[in-house]
Amino acid sequence: MYTLPDLDYDYSALAPWISPEIMELHHSKHHQAYVTGANTTLDKLDQARGSGDFAAITKLEKDLAFHLGGHINHSVFWKNMSPDGGGEPDGILQVTFEEYFSGFASFQAQFNEVALSIQGSGWAILAWDPLGQRPHIYQLYDQQSNLPAGQIPLLQLDMWEHAFYLQYRNVKADYVTAWWNVVDWTDVSSRLNQATTGSLTLLA
Ligand code: MN
What's the CA-to-centroid distance between 45 and ligand 1, angstroms? Predict the structure, then answer.
């Protein structure tokens, strides 16, 4: 069974960039709902196997991808942020951004556009592609769509309205600009190191 991970910081720790009210609702209600949904779906799949009745299998498979997707996305998102975040990355990230995105500023510009042009609910994600051995930026729709299998998340930005609306209303660009102030490059760098050596754990 999946469980809701604790945050490494208080709900008020990312203020003023992300308000305590958003953080509490987002973690304790929204993320919890994905955890509960994933576990409920696993129970129903267990029952289906027990009874041999797979009439609802298509719905259950979609539910599993959606809820487990939500659980994974938020688990990475919390770790990607820190009250001591912000600034520009150095080391392996600086080199990677230079090699694949023409530098940090260009990476950030592309990432911002990806985030702000999502139609409906979704995420902007920097992920490592183990096949090409290189990073890509993706638009992830809802919690599970539009992402090739096997991509390893390095940096995720939640663009669902529940992530920003209480504080930023409809001005998504202000939310995205504020968010860069809490990005924990140490965490992102660690994920990249793990991804390239095949030892990634999402909650490390
Ligand atoms: Mn969310």
Answer: 25
Distance 150 CA to ligand 1 centre (A): 21
pLDDT tens-digit profile of 39-60? 999 999 999 999 999 999 999 9
pLDDT at residue 202 tops 90: no
Task: Return mean pLDDT, the chain.
Answer: 96
Q: Tell how far the Cα of 99 is from the centroid of ligand 1, in angstroms.
A: 31
The closest of 141, 162, 153 to 203, measured between CA atoms, is 153
**Residue 124 and residue 80 in contact, taking contact as beta carbons nearer than 8 Å:** no
| Inter-CA distances, 170 with 20, 110, 155, 159, Å | 19, 21, 23, 11
Q: How far apart are the CA of 54 and the centre of ligand 1, in A?
A: 31
Tell how far the Cα of 161 is from the centroid of ligand 1, in angstroms.
Answer: 8
Beta bridge partners, 123, equal 140, 158
Threshold 0.70, pTM exceeds: yes
Residue type, position 99, single letter? E
For residues 62 and 48, what is the distance between their CA atoms, to the nearest angstrom?
A: 15
Q: For residue 95, how far is its CA from the centre of ligand 1 (angstroms)? A: 30
**CA-closest candidate to residue 37, choices 159, 143, 125:** 143
Residue 155: strand pairing partners: 126
167 — pLDDT class (breaks 50, 70, 90): very high
Give the span between the Cα atoms of 180 and 87, in whole angstroms: 8
